[in-house]
């Protein structure tokens, strides 16, 4: 099964001797998959220009936005530790179906992989891992609203499942949206807008943002 083509190419936001900040387009894998049609991906495109580039974290195939890439093993080790220890800060923009009653809130429901339907994730209060997301409404439309999402944990598909659990799935989500929500967008309306890290060498706090919001 062929994948839809990327919506644009990798954009370079920042570079020094230790890190690169990129803006990933939607419909691009972060790393290669197992089959031939899944070899084109963000890290391989970056490595064409910077052969020593190393992936630190991932965005879903359908998600666009800002990512950090390491340029050496020391930076990779330190940045990976920051993500693991939740020292990074991430802000996403999403459009979701319908309107939550409140203007902001928090989702605290544990998640685990649905072993019979990989890569789907499900809510599981007995065996799931802790997952926490803060959200607030930025703008309301007739049948949807634009949200800011801040994940505290970094579980797979966390934002997508958390919005589904609220009853407001992200528009265009082929995995978790119901038919009406899926039909309202031509792609997953989820974008990694901002990323804050500690520079792995200089140890100063740096905040980066995507140059544009695609919806």
Explained architecture:
This protein has 215 residues and is an alpha+beta fold. It has a domain at 91-190: 2-Layer Sandwich (Pseudouridine synthase), CATH 3.30.2350.10. It contains four helices and twelve strands. Strands 1, 2, 3, 4, 5, 6, 9, 10, 11 and 12 form a ten-stranded mixed β-sheet that branches. A two-stranded antiparallel sheet has the order 7-8. It starts with 10 loop residues before the first strand and ends in a 6-residue tail after the last strand.
**Arithmetic mean pLDDT:** 96
Which radius of gyration do the C-alpha atoms yield? 17 Å
- Structural class, from helix and strand content? alpha+beta
What sequence of helices (H) and strands (E) makes up the elements? EEHEEHEEEEEEHHEE
How far apart are the first and last residues' alpha carbons, in Å? 27 Å
- List segments where confidence is low: pLDDT < 50 over at least 5 consecutive residues: none
Shape: globular
Question: What would you say the CATH architecture of one domain is?
Answer: 2-Layer Sandwich
Find the CATH topology of one domain: Pseudouridine synthase
User: How many alpha or pi helices?
Assistant: 4
What's the CATH first level of one domain? Answer: Alpha Beta
Largest sheet: 10 strands, mixed
- CATH homologous group name of one domain: Pseudouridine synthase
Helix content: 10-25%
Percent of residues in β-strands: 25-35%
Give the tally of β-strands.
12
């Amino acid at each position: 099964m062929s994948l839809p083509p990327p919506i644009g190419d990798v954009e370079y936001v920042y570079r020094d001797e230790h890190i690169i900040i990129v803006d990933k387009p939607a419909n691009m894998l972060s790393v290669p998959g197992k089959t031939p049609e899944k070899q084109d991906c963000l890290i391989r495109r970056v490595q064409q220009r910077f052969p020593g580039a190393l992936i630190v974290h991932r965005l879903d195939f359908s998600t666009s936005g800002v990512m950090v890439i390491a340029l050496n093993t020391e930076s990779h080790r330190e940045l990976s530790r920051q993500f693991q220890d939740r020292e990074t800060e991430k802000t996403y923009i999403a459009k979701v179906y319908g309107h939550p009653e409140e203007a902001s809130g928090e989702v605290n429901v544990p998640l685990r992989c649905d072993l019979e339907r990989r890569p789907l994730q499900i809510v599981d209060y007995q065996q799931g891992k802790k997952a926490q997301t803060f959200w607030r409404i930025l703008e309301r439309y007739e049948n949807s609203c634009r949200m800011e999402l801040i994940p505290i944990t970094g579980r797979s598909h966390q934002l997508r499942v958390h919005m589904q659990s609220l009853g407001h799935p992200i528009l265009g989500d082929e995995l978790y949206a119901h038919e009406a929500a899926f039909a309202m967008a031509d792609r997953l309306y989820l974008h990694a807008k901002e990323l804050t890290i500690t520079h792995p060498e200089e140890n100063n706090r740096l905040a980066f943002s995507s140059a544009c919001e695609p919806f």
